[in-house]
Amino acid sequence: AQTVTQSQPEMSVQEAETVTLSCTYDTSESNYYLFWYKQPPSRQMILVIRQEAYKQQNATENRFSVNFQKAAKSFSLKISDSQLGDTAMYFCAFMKHGSGTASKLTFGTGTRLQVTL
Amino acid sequence: DAGVIQSPRHEVTEMGQEVTLRCKPISGHDYLFWYRQTMMRGLELLIYFNNNVPIDDSGMPEDRFSAKMPNASFSTLKIQPSEPRDSAVYFCASSLAGRQYNEQFFGPGTRLTVL
User: Which of A9, A63, B23, B113 is the most exposed place for a label (fewest CB within 10 A)?
Assistant: First the structure.
């Protein structure tokens, strides 16, 4: 079974600054996907960024980037130039890779990010 | 496409009543997932379907919970009888196998309150 750990229950960052959210996971799988989801107060789950385990290059999406360390089983999210709209819960999630098949997401407990003026 | 549609958005019921949550996946998607979000347990999978067939229901908490997918465009999650500890946000998500990353698209969720 897979586990995902987010050790920071809450974080705060000032507008325009950079913040990094931590995530570690445990799995015996060799190929998998990792995701960061954002959940604002509206509770909608929004995909922020994703990474395939066999790709060494770290994923980036505009102001969002990840630091993927496969050997250390670490998958941190960096948010640059933080904006008030980034205030939300952020969930790290793991999905086993299947050829032609889908699988469930295993979520961490989340990090509540507050962006302040 | 309208995305994943869930109804109702909010449900308040009394203990012992039957509750039915509904989900319409994105057209053409062949996987459908039901997740539950609570403060105590976070986000956890209840059950998922592939081509309308249940694949993994190991997350269904007990016999009071049942899920069906009678066709490719509709699924229900039923709780009978409901209990206060069932209060949670229930999410439905769908995906298309073979699509890059097997990305799951989430509905807006149903907030269930059992009094």
Answer: A9
A110 Ramachandran zone, left/alpha/beta (phi>0; psi -120 to 50): left
In the numeric block, which tokens belong to residue A43?
């509770």
What CATH number does residue A72 fall under? 2.60.40.10
Q: State how far residue B76 is from chain A, nearest Cα, in angstroms.
A: 18
Residue pair A105/A95 in contact (Cβ under 8 Å)? The answer is yes
| Structure-token pair, residue B24 | 């319409």
A43·B108 Cβ contact <8 A:
yes
Q: What is the DSSP letter of A43?
A: -
- The bridge status of strand A111-116 relative to strand A74-79 is unpaired
Q: Counting Cβ atoms within 10 Å, is residue A91 exposed (0-12), middle (13-18) or buried (19+)?
A: buried
Percent of residues, chain B, with pLDDT higher than 90: 86
Tokens 């990305």 locate to B103
Return the bridge partners of A69, or none: A74
**pLDDT tier at B62, thresholds 50, 70, 90:** confident
Residues 29-48 of A with CB under 8 A from B: 33, 35, 42-45, 47
DSSP-assigned letters across all residues of B52-71: TEEEE-TT--STTEEEEEEE
What domain count does chain A have? 1
- In 3-state terms, what secondary structure has residue A86? helix
pLDDT in tens, A37-64: 999 999 999 999 999 998 889 999 999 9
In this structure, what DSSP letter does residue A55 have?
A: -
